[in-house]
Specification:
alpha+beta, Immunoglobulin-like, 5-stranded mixed sheet, 409 residues, 8 helices, Sulfite Oxidase, Chain A, domain 2
């Protein structure tokens, strides 16, 4: 592992650029390139990616079952992206009954239950409220579940870990709407329900709902995409994404959880002794090396930059460590600013690959002292049957020919 200064110096010595003569450079610059010979395309009403980036798409996984059309997910191609903000069109999806198509002029949000006065909000009325903007990750509780299987899946980083994305969310603080109804002191929970075909319903403790939950109307500066719950969705910082109900149309204040279908099926953790723990909301601290990773290939020995993403549902990322020898030794990575709470943090570290097989790993720690567990420690805590909230350290094997594959270490 190398410091950034040593990396830059070494890369210059190595000669990352291709040497050309002054005459060849002059001849190239003097000639007209194909793109300089004809006018470019005209303006468009909505920008699109370059046609040469057509392979950068969400990874659509097979539907989970045949009795529920539209039930399944698509993954963010983490290994093909840089930075910390996920483009809206590449944000992962998880749907239980397809993508609802809702007219915002007809949509209503009801807040009722243990309140002094039930209220109905139109989208236009919500637009008049003071709004907040926060950059937050959303992660499906089943993200990375392939790594709980007995044999490591040979798939790209996005296919394994891509049920997580990070966006700038803008909307009305949920607590503001609840306070306007006149909260009954007996209210301890809220029950949020979506207007999609599955009528997804989740129970949430009242405190986080009043604290920092957002009724989001905007994502990355534009109105929500239909896949993200247009015209309204709930965003609870650090909580599993399924609790952030999409196509939000009802908030009920209650004195107890609803124990809905999704509360039980989506919110339970199976423990080794055979019991299930309900209502575990916060996602654990986690990191993954996205470059290089499966789907990439190293082209000869020399200097490379190891880069990836880290996040925690509890707080900011405090540090990320990287190992190139399967966890025998660790080196601190550089964290890219800004380092925000409950958001993606980009990390990087220079590496001089000597051409021999290596095992790349990253290990994140947040400000509260939570550190990613090893895979064996995670399995000891949850058991081999658990498929939710997997946050163990990921290992990528680098072969001598430069290819990468998923391994357990």
């Amino acid at each position: 592992m190398l410091t950034r200064r040593a990396f830059l110096k070494g890369a210059a010595v190595l000669g990352a650029g291709v040497a050309v003569s002054a005459e060849a450079a002059d001849a190239h610059i003097a000639g007209a390139l194909p793109s300089q010979k004809t006018p470019g395309r005209p303006f468009s009403g909505y920008g699109q990616p370059s046609s040469f980036e057509k392979d950068v798409q969400r990874i659509i996984l097979a539907s989970q079952g045949t009795n529920a059309p539209g039930n399944g997910q698509s993954c963010t191609p983490l290994h093909l992206l840089r930075g910390t903000i996920t483009p809206s069109g590449l944000h992962f999806e998880r749907h239980h009954h397809g993508v609802a198509d809702i007219d915002p002029k007809q949509h209503r949000l009801f807040v009722h239950g243990l309140v002094k006065q039930s209220l109905k909000f139109t989208v236009d009325r919500l637009m008049r409220y003071p709004m907040v903007t926060r950059t937050l990750f959303l992660e499906c509780a089943r993200n990375s579940s392939r790594n709980t299987l007995p044999e490591p899946a040979q798939a790209t980083c996005g296919e394994i870990h891509g049920l997580v994305s990070c966006s700038e969310w803008t909307g009305v603080p949920l607590g503001l709407l609840i306070e306007e109804t006149g909260l009954d002191p007996k209210a301890k929970w809220i029950v949020a329900q979506g207007a999609d075909a599955s009528s997804l319903m989740r129970s949430i403790p009242i405190d986080p709902a009043l604290d920092d939950a957002i009724v989001a109307l905007w994502q990355n500066g534009e109105r929500l995409r239909p896949e993200q719950g247009y015209p309204l969705r709930l965003v609870l910082p650090g909580f599993e994404s399924c609790i952030g109900v999409k196509w939000l149309h009802r908030i009920k204040l209650t004195d107890a959880p609803a124990y809905s279908r999704e509360d039980v099926a989506e919110g339970a953790e199976l423990l080794p002794e055979g019991k299930s723990q309900l209502f575990h909301f916060t996602m654990g601290v986690k990191s993954v090396i996205t470059q290089p990773s499966p789907g990439w290939s190293l082209h000869g020995r020399g200097f490379y930059e190891i880069a990836g993403l880290a996040w925690s549902g509890s707080d900011r990322i405090a540090k990320v460590e990287i190992s190139a020898d399967g966890g025998k030794t660790w080196a601190p990575a550089e964290l890219q600013e800004p380092i925000l709470s409950k958001s993606f943090t980009r990390f990087r570290l220079a590496w001089n690959w000597n051409g021999s097989p290596a095992v790349l790993m990253s290990r994140a720690t947040d400000q509260r002292g939570h550190t990613q567990p090893t895979r064996s420690a995670w399995l000891q805590q949850y058991g081999a049957g658990q498929r939710r909230r997997y946050n163990a350290v990921q290992a990528w094997q680098v072969e001598s020919d430069g290819t990468l594959r998923n391994v357990y270490a």
